[in-house]
Amino acid sequence: MNISEVKMIQYSKSEEVFNIKLLQSGTETSIGLKSKTFSIAMRKSAHTSLVKMHNHTTLLVIYPSSGLFTFNDLSNKIIEKIFKYIRKGEKMNKMSSRIHTLDYLRGFALLGIILVNVVGINFINAEIAKTHIEGIYASFLLIFIESKFFSIFSILFGVGFYIFMDRATYKAQNKYALYFRRLIVLFIFGVLHSFLQPGEALKFYAIAGVILLIFLHLKKEINLILGLLLLVAAIVLDAKLLETMPYFILGLAIGQYGLIYQFNTNLRKWIIAWSVFLVLTILSVSLLMMYYAPPNYILAENMGLHGEQFVQKKMFFDHLVTMTSPFISCFYMLTIIIVVQNDIGAKLLAPLKYYGRMALTNYIFQTLFIIVFVKVFFNGSVSMLN
Asked: Which residues cross the membrane (predicted)?
């Protein structure tokens, strides 16, 4: 349909369906607002605006190649309805294809979680690190890996929650029933997985997922503020178990702000954000190096730290790790987002995308792989460096 050929527009309302008739030269096209046809027809609009002249309201839909498309003398109620469908059509056009950047991020998070889980599954902890090299590796995990990748995974859970509920609403599905079904499946997998992985997180994700429903219909600004305040509270209280919920809420807010549909646009803004968190990450790592404390008493003795002196230094260092984790996590995420916008970067990191598409399956498969691998190649016993 060539919009520029439209000569007249008529509209009528019957049985809650708003019909638009486009009268062209010798032809007539009818579009129902509740039909997908209208959404599809309006998806390519570059800009929409309202113009009020005296007592009449005109909706302008500006097409890049076809000029203006106007709806004249419409009531505000009808205008709002048209806008609703235009926005929905444009958003669903963006959502019609999978958001690949999220797959890259999920795959990246899963790979980081492997490094943490291989330690937990084999009951290895930093307390038994005996050599200087083992101590360095344990500290590396603490500073750059632990909590960072689970934070990313938690944010992505909140983003996924928003996308799931939004798509279910658009498709007129019972979103709550579908969502609870997913949470039940997630909880069951979590319980089963806990027999293999002592630090299992899925069942806690399922429980937190129920609480997340409370925030679904809150304004994006409120969710952003609440998420940040709860995260700060969890950090100040040094309550790592309470950090999951704030990240869920922040992920939901990211979805509400529409940032997930802007990964391929505004590259300059993404780079600015990345630069800010690069500086924050450098400052964070510098502080951690300045106040570094070894992971256990054995290595502390070698550094000349004894008794209460080591305990106080270790407590402060661990708290500093918790405080700086959000900055490093955001830096990781922004790095992936920017790199995959480049064709070469996207191809190089393509394995992450495919790995992240089946996040739950691969999360559980990782555990099985670690157990079998250690059993076969290390006779069931590994050290920190193995």
From this structure: 104-124, 136-164, 176-196, 202-218, 225-241, 247-264, 271-293, 320-340, 360-378
